[in-house]
Design a protein that fits this description.
The chain is mainly β. The protein has two domains: 45-217, Sandwich (Immunoglobulin-like); 221-350, Immunoglobulin-like (Sandwich). Helix content is 9%, strand content 38%. The strands form six sheets. The protein has a five-stranded antiparallel β-sheet with strand order 14-15-20-18-17, with no helix packed on it. A four-stranded antiparallel β-sheet has the order 1-3-9-7, with no helix packed on it. The chain has a four-stranded antiparallel β-sheet with strand order 8-4-11-12, with no helix packed on it. The radius of gyration is 40 Å and the shape is rod-shaped. Mean pLDDT is 86; it is low at 1-41.
Length: 351
């Protein structure tokens, strides 16, 4: 409309000036139009959060295959290009209590080894490319939504290896802090340097993350049955002595006690052996000492014997089986017919 008025009402002698004014307006019009409708480009922002990993309360006496648990790492992105594939490199570094390449949880000066794996077979260790730790981190790809967002979960497979029976009862922890070696690398997938981890092409960004690993080792005990065999004798006109043993395995540092039951054929407090062939009984006694002066109690506590000192076995676990001697005596007695006599005694370990 403005151009029409310039040409319709200006005299011929003024056309040059009009054209100059018109060209001046046209020169700036495109710039004004572009400036009015342009939008700034959005940059993708990604972060990774890892759940704190807990083994809970565990006993390590029977960990023949190790103790396993899992954690979850979640990648979250916003501002991504819609429906675009991105590549992610997840680097987990060594932790606060590492020994060489071995990650450890710790309590005071004690250490409990553990490992983080990328697979459910616990065969591929999870490390860091940026920190040159183990064989490197974990690589994944994910495609953004139409709204430019990404949410991708990844499982961390964590294991305390077998053979930790000597670990003391305690709560152990390791902190894996965020750092330049514990980070998430990410970029649009493709192009030179951005098709495999570690990323080295253009447009690579990083973010850091941290998490912890913890386990509480609790006391536990196992017992192996033993035997006590008295030497054959024709007559019980004199006491017959014998020595046997049982074996107890308790957690390192755990106090425990061992009590021996009255047996299957006791008469009151008197232990007895029985022969099905003769239908008869032979009395016998069990002692905690080689002097045969301290009869073995049938009840125990973890720190003391309920019927007085020396009437049960008190010990402290070391994570291995400990052999405990059992002293037996068949007192002088009359009447039993010749035959084989036996009894079964229950071993009770209290801890």
């Amino acid at each position: 409309m403005q151009i029409a008025r310039f040409f319709g009402f200006l005299p011929a002698c003024g056309k040059r000036a009009a054209f100059r004014r018109l060209s001046h307006r046209i020169r700036y019009a495109p710039i004004l139009a572009i400036g009015g409708f342009a939008k700034p480009a959005l940059a993708v922002t990604c972060s990774l959060s890892v759940t704190n990993i807990s083994f809970g309360s565990i006993s390590l006496l029977a960990d023949l295959l190790g103790v396993d648990t899992t954690g979850t790492a979640t990648i979250t992105c916003s501002g991504a290009a819609p429906v675009t594939t991105y590549i992610f490199c997840i680097n987990i570094y060594d932790g606060s209590n590492v020994s060489g390449t071995q990650r450890n949880m710790a309590y005071l000066g004690l250490k409990l080894p553990y490992a983080i794996y990328a697979d459910a077979l616990y065969a591929v260790p999870w490390g860091s490319w940026t920190g040159a730790y183990l064989s490197g981190g974990v690589q994944i790809t994910a495609t953004s939504s139409g709204g430019g967002t990404i949410s991708q979960a990844v499982t961390l497979y964590t294991q305390i290896p077998a053979g930790q029976q000597s670990a003391s009862d305690a709560t152990y922890m390791d902190i894996l802090p965020s750092s330049a070696n514990q980070n998430l690398q990410y970029a649009v997938y493709g192009g030179s340097g951005n098709t495999a981890c570690p990323l080295a092409g253009g447009g690579v960004s990083t973010s850091q993350f941290s998490f912890s690993v913890a386990a509480t080792v609790i006391g536990a005990c196992n017992v192996q049955s033993g035997s006590l065999v008295f030497a054959p004798t024709a007559l019980l006109t004199a006491p017959v002595e014998g020595t046997g043993s049982v074996a107890v395995e308790c957690s390192n540092g755990a106090p425990y006690s061992v009590g021996l039951g009255a047996g299957n054929y006791a008469s009151g407090s008197q232990r007895r052996m029985y022969s099905a062939a003769t239908g008869g009984y032979v009395s016998y006694n069990l002692y905690t000492d080689s002097g045969y002066s301290q009869p073995w109690s049938t009840t125990t506590s973890a720190t003391s014997c309920t019927t007085g000192g020396g009437t049960c076995y008190l010990g402290t676990g070391n994570g291995s089986y400990q052999t405990i001697p059992v002293y037996g005596m068949v007192p002088q007695q009359l009447g039993p017919a010749a035959g084989a006599y036996s009894d079964t005694v229950t071993v009770t370990v209290t801890y």
